[in-house]
Every structure is written in structure tokens, then in C-alpha cells.
Design a protein that fits this description.
Layout lengths: L12 E2 H17 L3 H17 L1 E2 L2 E7 L2 E5 L2 H18 L2 H18 L32 H16 L2 H13 L1 H6 L5 H10 L4 E7 L5 H8 L6 E7 L23 E6 L2 E2 L6 H10 L4
Helix pairs in contact: 1-2, 1-3, 2-3, 3-4, 3-5, 5-6, 5-8
Length: 285
């Protein structure tokens, strides 16, 4: 057997597929409180930043020390999703900043400003059969479905409603498909479900690094209709990208929780049990 020619090895590295893996690892690291998964997600994201992004141009493929092929919609959409998941898994604001930067590039390069929704390829590239859009989810979700949910979450995290306007525009453009063929657009329907279940913005404020026990408790509840942010009351790095958190302060010199809906926050509290009760009431468990 060793004397025979070996079969060809497909060892190219693809941005979209790796982004999906980063999402899975970040979620697993958060849910199972396993840093080994979170660290693998961070390392993979670092690799993409180092080898597949050059002068704000995202590339689709890396092979033999060379990045090539300008990114497709899947690459941008999935990598934005990965950055958001990494932020919620680590609360490192750099991932949130990257999600915003990638989203701005995604809109600039792929958004149909006339009718709405994202093209599959750069709108300035040539297509023999014309520009195409799709929302059907198969073995992997479609770029528009992922963008709908990611942009809604990004809007709720940053307070920038422009992102949610893009998400709503995608829903409007594909509304007929969502109504007639919902079973084929299961990821896209998650975005619809998110908006229709009174999603919460949970903001944790502290003057020191967040207690791992708190993140472990929060992750133990399957509460998909929320976004979670951490604000360091001294560093205030989050305020640079999430303006609505500037008025959220620590109280009683203890870890403080804010539970908000549509950026309107209820009275802050320090009791973790109270937060868990809120999350459980918003859970699908």
C-alpha cells in the first residue's frame, strides 16, 4: 500500500468553515465552562486575522502560505457570527470591535441598497448569471439567515439600531420565502423567533474582572433570547462601542446586574439569584 500513489489531500483552510467551527467551540467553551474549547476558538480566530485578512480585505482560502480568492458572503456572515460568539464567551471587547468592522465591510461590499439583503458575492464582481441572493438553509445556514440573527444581536449589544434595520430589510425581502418555506429556512426563523420573544440585554458591571462563577451560572441556563455584556467600570472599554452602557454604573460596591429590554433598563440589582430567575423565565428549557 505504501508503494502506491497516495490520494490527494484537501488541506486548504476556508474562512467560512473555520468560522462555523469557531462558533461551535466558543459556544461549547461557554456552556461547558471549558477553556480548552474557548482557547481553540480564539486561536482559530487569530489565525484568520493573521493569514486571511489583509488591508481590510477578507479572503476565502489559505493554502501553502498564500491567501487567495476574495471572500464570499458566507465568509463575512459566518465570521461576524464567530466574533459575536467569542465576545459573549470571553467578554473581550476586541471581538466585538471586529464584528462591527466586518459588518461594515460586509454591508459596503455585498448589500443591495436598492432592494435589500446580501448578494452571495461582492456586488462589484462580475457574475455570468447575474447577482444572486438566497436564504435557504441546507447543511450549513445561508449567509442572509446568519446575518439576520447576527445583526439583531449586534444591534442589541451596541445600541446601534442601524444593524437591526438591515436585519429587518432581509426579513422583508425574503418574507414570501419565510412564510411559504419556513421549514427550509430554519436558521432564518431563529432571528424571527428572537425578535418575538421579548429579548433581553443583560449587562454586568463590576470594578474588577468578572467572577468566573457568574459566567458559569449564566451559561448554565439555555436562554437564547438574550445578549450578555460585561462592562468594567474603570476601564470602560465597552462604552466605546456600546453607548447605551455609559449610564450603567456599579451600585453598593458589588457586581451589578442590569436587565434591559429595547435598551430600557430596569432597576439594577446585585443578587445573582434574581438574575437567574429572570433568565429562567426567558428560557426554552
Amino acid at each position: 500500500r505504501n508503494m502506491r500513489n497516495h490520494p490527494l489531500l484537501d488541506d486548504k483552510i476556508l474562512t467560512d468553515w473555520n468560522a462555523l467551527m469557531i462558533v461551535a467551540l466558543a459556544k461549547a467553551g461557554s456552556v461547558f465552562d471549558a477553556k480548552v474549547f474557548t482557547n481553540k476558538a480564539k486561536n482559530a480566530f487569530d489565525f484568520i486575522e493573521e493569514h486571511l485578512i489583509s488591508e481590510e480585505q477578507l479572503f476565502h482560502r489559505y493554502k501553502e502560505q498564500e491567501s487567495s480568492i476574495n471572500a464570499f458572503a458566507d465568509d463575512y456572515s459566518f465570521l461576524i457570527w464567530a466574533a459575536i460568539e467569542l465576545y459573549e464567551a470571553t467578554f473581550e471587547v476586541k471581538y466585538l470591535k471586529k464584528a462591527i468592522s466586518l459588518s461594515e465591510q460586509f454591508v459596503e461590499k455585498f448589500w443591495d441598497s436598492k432592494d435589500g439583503a446580501f448578494y452571495l458575492s461582492d456586488k462589484n464582481s462580475e457574475e455570468l448569471l447575474g447577482k444572486q441572493k438566497q436564504i435557504y438553509d441546507g447543511a450549513i445556514p445561508s449567509s442572509n439567515s446568519v446575518a439576520m440573527l447576527s445583526f439583531i444581536k449586534l444591534s442589541r449589544i451596541t445600541g446601534n439600531t442601524k444593524f437591526e434595520e438591515y436585519a429587518n430589510s432581509i426579513g422583508e425581502y425574503f418574507s414570501t420565502d419565510l412564510i411559504r418555506s419556513g421549514s427550509s429556512i430554519t436558521f432564518g426563523l431563529q432571528a424571527v423567533q428572537f425578535l418575538n420573544n421579548q429579548p433581553k440585554e443583560v449587562v454586568i458591571v463590576d470594578c474588577k474582572n468578572l467572577d468566573p462563577e457568574i459566567t458559569s451560572k449564566i451559561s448554565s441556563v439555555f436562554s437564547p433570547f438574550k445578549v450578555c455584556l460585561f462592562k468594567h467600570s474603570i476601564k470602560k472599554e465597552l462604552e466605546e462601542v456600546s453607548n447605551f452602557t455609559s449610564d450603567l454604573h456599579i451600585i453598593n460596591e458589588s457586581t451589578t446586574f442590569y436587565c434591559c429590554t429595547d435598551f430600557t433598563c430596569e432597576k439594577p440589582f446585585n443578587d445573582l439569584v434574581e438574575l437567574m430567575n429572570i433568565l429562567n423565565s426567558n428560557s426554552l428549557a
